[in-house]
Amino acid sequence: MMLSIENLSFQYPSRSVLRDIKFSIKPGECLAILGINGAGKSTLLKCINRILKPQHGAVYVDKKDARKLSGTDLAKKIGYVSQTSRASRQTVFDTIMLGRKPYIKWDITDKDLEIVHQIIQMLNLEKFSLRYIDELSGGELQKVVIARALAQEPKVLLLDEPTSNLDLKNQLEVVRLVRKIVKEKNMAAVVTMHDLNLALRFADKFLLMKDSEIFAIGGMEVMNPQNIKSVYSVSVKVRTCDNLPVVIPV
Amino acid sequence: MKLNGKKAEAGERFQTISSYKKYTGRKLFVIFILIFLVLLMAIISINAGSAKLSLYEVVQAIFAKGDEISQIVIWEIRLPRIMAGIIVGIGLAVAGAVMQNNLRNPLASPSTLGISNAAAFGANVAIVLLGAGTVQSQAADAVFINNPYIVAISAFIASMGATAVVLLLARIRRFSPESIVLAGVALGSLFTAGTTLIQYFAEDVQIAAAIFWTFGDLGRVSWQEVIILAGVIGCAFIYFLYRRWDYNALDGGEETAKSLGVNVERVRLEGMVIASLITAVSVSFLGMIGFIGLIAPHIMRRIIGGDHRFLIPASAFMGALILLFSDTLARTMISPVVLPVGAITSFLGAPMFLYLLIRGNKRR
After folding, report:
1. What residues in A contact B264, CB-CB < 8 Å?
2. Which carries the bigger pLDDT value, residue A233 or residue B137?
3. d(Cα B344, Cα B327) in Å, to the nearest integer?
4. Longest dimension (CA), chain B
5. What is the ipTM of this complex?
6. Which terminal residue of chain A, N or C, has fewer Cβ atoms less than 10 Å from its own Cβ?
């Protein structure tokens, strides 16, 4: 198992956000976390890489207990892209280089430069490499922050709504790119999403969250009209179009 | 075909990395130019002053030759002053650069935590309540602070006290930038109110001494203070450089920084304490010197970007350059009267800053 979550619970002083979450994913798997706003999807991601410290439960990354790893060591195993990325006055190259932060002792090495360059090439960002990121479009910026997470050479990639601010073309591009890289490098990805159809294209496994708990988890079979109706309170039909499953609200 | 593809790929790699190296090389070049300009300014500054010394006399005096008076002028008056200008300029500028990053606030400066107000309050307490200030009827210096050490120590205690209170308050809110800025503003106005009350009940000669103290003046230092300033600011500068990658990570937002393994609360707490220490020492010895901590980092951010590997040293030397230039102007403009350097830094800095702001927006 690449990532195992065991009995994880998190609460703010006034209310509980995650209750008894447990699941695991294998190398090369993409997991989509689905659920309505406020179901606890983002909190779950933040608990996995300890941006928030869960009160109960454990996270094992690559068979190591995340609680026992230092911040830097955990950053070598988990790459994270938050829901909103702040565009600062840094170049694309420097931003991706930040992903090497967990490895940098005093200054960057030739190896760091090489890795950043490879990622720039893989994501077709050569044209932008010396542009400031506050001058990029939303789609370009999203690719750059994903590139930064990849520069960490992580085992697990956590992406919090990576497609929510993107147009159709960029949505598909980002999702395909992440899937391709996860398969190629045998990593694991956990991605929160709102677009069910995009999730169907992207993920091998689906986790439906409702009221701070796991409602259902599994392959294509959990994406049935009954489950979706229970989670989103919306009636849908699931059809197949050109061999792709499609969810249509009715 | 395949071979060609490989060749092109290798060429491309060479291009991306080499153009990045060229790009960082340009930033280094800017830093070297700034160092050169600071040295040039120091040479101009050591030749300027009310005691008209020729270049030859200056050079002789530096090597402890020539007549005694010019040696005293150079070694006891001009050199400590120039050193203080360079060191404090560096200190205030790097403190500003770090505060702006740590507090995610472009308006943050070394005085954001209310430190300058607290220092002024401490100085007022010393001058008015502890009787450190009197008036001496001499032609050159009408107002005279008869015990500068008590004033400096009192100002330092007050400013570090203010820092401690702000950070203790902010700790409750896990050092969120907003809470630090707001606590600083509140505490600053509290100290200003305290100063007003003290001055209201003070004699007018004491008020004169107190107000005179607040005008920043590099002429107050001797070698002893220069050494203390150099020690504190030197250590702080090295610490800030050590943290440069953490600051770059913080630029991407708090959650991103945490996901890269940065201990955000700790980095922010240490940054605040050290920046405050720089400010407290500088203000206590020299009085208020405004604006450098704000403009030097912003000017350099516009010129070389926000990468703290280069921004911290570049801001440092820009700060030194502005302060040294301002002080030289303050000493020579209507010599032998020395104008308050704090006013000059703002007079020079504000238009320069506005120019860069407007030009920067046009380019976009």
Report:
1. none
2. A233
3. 8
4. 91
5. 0.90
6. C
Sequence-distant (≥ 6) Cβ neighbours of residue B44 within 8 angstroms = B328
- Residues of A whose CB is below 8 A from B16: 93, 117, 120-121, 126, 129
Task: Please state the rounded mean pLDDT for residues B330-358.
Answer: 81
CB contact under 8 A, A70 and B12: no
Q: How many domains does chain A have?
A: 1
Category of A203 on φ-ψ map: left (φ > 0), alpha (ψ -120 to 50) or beta: beta
B144's enclosing H/E stretch is strand B143-145
Report whether pLDDT(B7) > 70. no
Which residue in A44, A98, A116 has the most chain B C-beta atoms within 10 A of its own C-beta, making it the best mutation to test that interface? A98
Give the Cα separation of A226 and B172 in Å (integer): 46
Looking at the complex, report in whole angstroms how far the Cα of residue B64 sits from the nearest Cα belonging to chain A.
41
| B363 alpha carbon, distance to own chain's centre | 29
d(CA B194, CA B121) in angstroms, rounded, equals 7
Q: Give per-residue pLDDT as tens, A129-141.
A: 889 888 888 888 9
CATH number at residue A145: 3.40.50.300
**The whole model's pTM is what?**
0.88
The DSSP string of chain A is --EEEEEEEEE-SS-EEEEEEEEEE-TT-EEEEE--TTSSHHHHHHHHTTSS--SEEEEEETTEEGGGS-HHHHHTTEEEE-SS----S-BHHHHHHGGGTTT-SSS--HHHHHHHHHHHHHTT-GGGTTSBGGGS-HHHHHHHHHHHHHHT--SEEEEESTTTT--HHHHHHHHHHHHHHHHHHT-EEEEE-S-HHHHHHH-SEEEEEETTEEEEEESGGG-SHHHHHHHHS--EEEEEETTEEEEEE-
Q: Which residues of A touch B311 (CB under 8 A)?
A: none
Q: According to the model, what pLDDT value does residue A90 have?
A: 87
Cβ pair A86:B306 closer than 8 A: no
Query: Is residue B287 within 8 Å of B280, Cβ to Cβ?
Result: no
- DSSP class per residue in A6-55: EEEEEE-SS-EEEEEEEEEE-TT-EEEEE--TTSSHHHHHHHHTTSS--S
Nearest residue in chain A measured CA to CA from B242: A106
**Are residues A98 and B245, on separate chains, in Cβ contact within 8 Å?**
yes
- A89 to chain B: which residues are within 8 Å by CB? 251, 301, 305-306
Among A residues 70-99, those touching chain B with beta carbons less than 8 Å apart: 70-76, 78-80, 82, 84-86, 88-91, 93-95, 98-99
pLDDT at B262 over 80: yes
- Are the Cβ atoms of A90 and B306 closer than 8 angstroms? yes
- In this prediction, residues B335-360 reach a mean pLDDT of 79
Task: Return per-residue pLDDT of chain A as tens, 250 residues.
Answer: 889 999 999 998 888 889 999 999 999 999 999 999 888 899 999 999 899 999 999 999 988 898 898 989 999 999 999 988 777 888 999 999 999 999 998 888 999 999 999 999 888 888 888 898 888 888 889 999 999 999 999 999 999 999 888 889 889 988 999 999 999 999 999 999 999 999 998 999 999 999 889 999 999 889 999 999 999 999 999 998 888 889 999 8
